[in-house]
Amino acid sequence: MFKWQGAAGVCINKKKEILMVLQAAPEEEKKWTVPSGTLEDGETFEQCCVREFSEETGLTVCILEKVHVKSGNISEHGISYHVEYFLVEIVSGEIMIQDPDEFIHEIAWKSLEEIAELPLAYPEDIHILEQLLKD
To answer: Would you tell me which of 24, 27, 35, 36 could form a disulfide with 53, CB atoms 3.0–4.6 Å apart?
Structure first.
């Protein structure tokens, strides 16, 4: 079984909106998610989160805290996964698509109500986002 590991960053602004990215590989349907990606060799989950956030949004962030861990198996594809989610804060930069893989199509601040209506890459993440907005 292939083991995939990654990290995701959740950034919440003063209006209680979450920074989301619209992503898809060339043949895929475009779906929304928080900035996230694959752990590279020698990288910590925190370093992965900061790097992926920058690559996907143009923003430099710092980690505030780990807020969730999601692990499981997608048996039909022979994949096990482990993703660590971090609450992040913007340190610098401007929102700009600069994804080297060219999978990011749009970046936008979204309210929880808007997110609930969007096609999500990982629909189960709505519960993580709801919990963070309540805190």
So the answer is: 35
List b or e across 26-62, with b for residues whose CB sees 16 or more CB atoms inside 10 angstroms: eeeeeebbbbbbebeeebebbebbbbbbbbbbbbebe
pTM of the predicted model, to two decimals? 0.93
Low-confidence ranges of the chain (pLDDT < 70): none
- pLDDT tens for 4-14 read 999 999 999 99
**CATH of 2-134 given 1.10.287.70, 3.90.79.10, 3.90.330.10, 3.30.450.70:** 3.90.79.10
Domain boundaries, the chain: 2-134
The β-bridge relationship of strands 59-74 and 36-38 is unpaired
Say if CB 84 and CB 37 are below 8 A apart.
no
What pLDDT is attached to residue 92? Answer: 97
